[in-house]
Amino acid sequence: MWSKPWSYKEGLTIGTGLLIIGILLQMTVGAINWDLFACPVNVIVLVVYIIALIVMHLLRKRVYLFSWLSHYSAAVSALLWVVGMTVVMGLIRQAPSGHAPNASTDLLGFSQMIASWPFVLLYFWMVTALGLTILRASFPFKWRRLSFLLNHIGLFVALIAATLGNADMQRLKMTTRMGNAEWRATDDKSQLIELPLAIELKDFTIDEYPPKLMLIDNETGRTLPEKSPEHVLLEEGVIKGTLQDWQLTIEQSIPMAASVATEDTVKFIEFHSMGATYAVYLKAFNQENQTTKEGWVSCGSFLFPYKALRLDSLTSLVMPEREPQRFASEVKIYTQEGTITEGTIEVNRPMEIEGWKIYQLSYDETKGRWSDVSVFELVRDPWLPVVYAGIIMMMAGLLVRQCTKEKRGGQSMNWEYFILFAIAALVCWALGAFAAWKGTKPGWAYGFTFLGLAIFFSFIIGMWISLERPPMRTMGETRLWYSFFLPLAGLITYVRWKYKWILSFSCILSFVFICINIFKPEIHNKTLMPALQSPWFAPHVIVYMFAYAMLGAATVMAVYLLWFKKKEIERKEMDLCDNLTYVGLAFMTLGMLTGAIWAKEAWGHYWAWDPKETWAAATWFAYLAYIHFRLGKPLKARPALVILLVSFVLLQMCWYGINYLPSAQGVSVHTYNLN
What we know:
- By secondary structure, the chain is of the alpha+beta class.
- The protein contains 15 helices and 17 strands.
- A hairpin with a 4-residue loop joins strand 7 and strand 8.
- Helix 1 (8-29) crosses helix 5 (117-138).
């Protein structure tokens, strides 16, 4: 060890040393206080850091450490350590910002990872290696390195600006009441801050989805069936429905109702005032035992209690609280300069005034649609243009790489039709795979595969139109996209590299996901939470699904090479893994960037270390480690394939694993009901 040239052993040792130093600092001086880096301190630190990088670059021939830091082995070692720390972060519930962790129970500070010394030192090592790599590749400048430089410089700028600029970002919470102007807000430490502007709430409105009727178990209160609950959506014109053995007939529907107690029961009447609820009078007929029940069912409100209909000793019919489709605030904003601005603030549509972005955060949920209170989040982030500049540079780098690579009806669609489209598409994909395997004219493989994609995509479009939203909410709907993108990725790979087996592989995997959706049907309805009603929602998820398909193909190839191939691994086989990973990671990066922009527009922050974001970062760094390892050690195939498999495991945690992690329950906006 420590004999030149240094390799991964030295890199892992350096990482261990930084970890130990970080632990000692954490136990002696405590967590890092990022507030100390507010302007102008962060600017001074940035200038000093850039000068230090330049000096290290100039001294690289005299000091071997500086030269090694721009080598592949340093990059891979740093990335592996960062992946490890990020995984730990994903497994431990993080304390909210502004709430210091309990020093007696969390000596290492891992419950607030971004302020812990071990995490920061290892990330600092990675960013330093990134900066020195940029300097090494920039001088002398060559046009063929443009994509490389744009990607790396963009990442460097985004990381540095997001880190150092965090101290200058103000994130405040303001609660306003109808008819009153408010100029005070609270920070994450509950300190009251007076602002140079005031917000007057003129009106607050909520659009709700139609109510639902569902069955519940009288003992447990759980919806039925337990694993895949059913419902009847009371849209306009709906008068009948079926829930298990019960046939429902709506006799009377009152959208604005009040409950009135009688001698023996409760009934509902018209009530066009605050606190009105939705109520229906219905008959329920059991087709199995020929019994009939009738009565009122209501979702209730803050003024009137909900009303359920007991069908038998085991089952009751209920109407859950209505889900918000959209909520918005009509406001008037006053500034110290005397300007008055009127507008509407809603989720995904903030207002911007004098450097402040105002987001619709919440309302009085106890009153629901009758809320006279609106809660806003005000964000001021002077470093945001710099972060966006880094993101744009990374997008430009991906575009340059892809551009230069070659040089190197009637009835609405519903889930019942899925099996018909799926079978037709699978038949076409199977014929395309057979044509490719037989080595006949490629046109047959292209044609059949494309026809299957067109058939399957027509179902997706039909579902999109029917649901009035992109079918991307539930796990079943994401599997739908995965079933589509796997053959698409296979077709692209076959066209580009002519691998005969790839269409067969993609067809088999797509068949697996289709079978899961057939035998485990999901709930598909029109409801979509306001945060997901964004123009960024569809491209973000679609890009991610395509990335998953490409990276999944790379993983299967890796499994084949490691455990099933008897002969020595060939270069062309590793080239296939590399190419699939390059494309998959490019789209994954694009998905992360679009997600960051979406998050900024929706919630005021582009990265909040949400559990899913944490695992996405770990996954991204892991695939970067694979790429850098392949570039540094192109003949070491098996260790590279192991890194590729570990990266895919992290990808699965990022995709659906967080739904089961205790550290993500109740704190992540990305966890969702698997149904």
